Amino acid sequence: MQDARQIGYRAGRTSAMNVNGKPMRTIWATEDQVEILDQTQLPHELVIRRLRTADDVARAIRTMQVRGAPLIGAAAAYGVWLTARADPSDGALEAAARALLATRPTAVNLRWALEAMTAALRPVPPPQRAGAARAAADRIADQDVAVNRAIGEHALALLRALEPRRPRGGGAPPRLNVLTHCNAGWLATVDRGTALAGVYAAHDAGLPIHVWVDETRPRNQGAALTAWELGQQGVPHTVIVDNAGGHLMQRGEVDVVVVGTDRTTAAGDVVNKVGTYLKALAARDCGVPFYVAAPSSSIDWRIDDGRDIEIEERAATEVTEIAGRAEGGARVTVRLTPAGAPAANPAFDLTPARLVTGLITERGVAPASRQGLAALFPTEGARRS
Ligand code: MRU
């Protein structure tokens, strides 16, 4: 393992988020390779992995060393760059894009990034494609950072309009309670995050923000990743089991729910980590606003109905087993279910647009509807294919 801080600096790109007090992105490229923070090792260890080929990148996405819709898009773009360095022919680039696209089916950012890379490289003669691919992949990564910054500013305006409340049963100072699901933070993007961008902006602005962190079974992105990154940035938070959210909302202990999205349809349906829908239902019943942070790279302009989106089905062992660290530091996996118990593992679910209070995009907050999105994105909204 290398010193992550030094490597983050060497990569020479700006970063808003800190690891052990030093700025760091989740992915960066050196002269000849891509480096990532291996998210399967968090929160217990900070491990940097080097990726040298598009196959390496595809494996990192498939095994969820990198994960989160915007980050897998950026990683795929760098995968195309690695291919262009080795073989810039049309055939090699097309094969790499196909392999990268096949890694995970639900998040549309993957397709968006690969289409952007193809469009950037097609007119370029092969000898110049490596340089053009690197510039295009860097642009996608930098654009993600800028988009998330803008989402954070729009979310901050929403959070400022809410009234901080005193926690129940005590003289503790008032706080603003945000509930989030999965990890739609810095680790799911190149920097800042989408759902958590507003949380970080609010924390930086001095708002008394507190985050309820859904653990997010079965892979525990909330307990492992969101809790870790909020801790790194010094944002007050509390991890809860997935089933506690409805109870907290009923008791008035959640002021707003903010989640990310893997794919939002042109009509505002949202597909995000499984369990999001149940939070949206509870929020509607309890009168709690339910916002989705949706960068335009996660909007699928070709689809209106969220039921048309493929939901990734993952290994049953993610449900029947759980992994963690034993007291002495050893990594352990234990079985939760009777041996041989069947398990199903849909990784995402659909929250219909009618349950979404608003979509926080980089261009502002849109009603979750075709008209709402088209008003902010007239070009994309008018284009159907
Ligand atoms: O399976 P994952 O961990 O890649 O799923 C991630 C999520 O569902 C996030 O909420 C989503 O990608 C939005 S990330 C900004």
Key descriptive features of the protein:
single chain, 385 residues, alpha/beta, Four Helix Bundle (Hemerythrin (Met), subunit A), Rossmann fold, 2 domains, seven-stranded mixed sheet, four-stranded mixed sheet, 18 strands, 38% helix, 18% strand, disordered N terminus, binds 5-S-methyl-1-O-phosphono-5-thio-D-ribulose
CATH superfamily of the largest domain, please?
A: Translation initiation factor eif-2b, domain 2
Which structural category fits the helices and strands? alpha/beta
The whole-number mean of residue pLDDT values reads 94
> How many DSSP H or I helices?
13
Count of strand segments? 18
- Strand fraction equals 15-25%
Percentage of residues assigned to helices: 25-40%
> Would you give the CATH topology of the largest domain?
Rossmann fold
Rounded to an integer in angstroms, the radius of gyration calculated over CA atoms is 20 Å
Distance between the ends:
46 Å
CATH class placement of the largest domain: Alpha Beta
Largest sheet: 7 strands, mixed
Small molecules bound? 5-S-methyl-1-O-phosphono-5-thio-D-ribulose
What best-fitting shape do the alpha-carbon axes yield? globular
**Domain count:** 2
In spatial order, strands of the major sheet run 8-7-6-9-12-17-18
CATH architecture of the largest domain: 3-Layer(aba) Sandwich
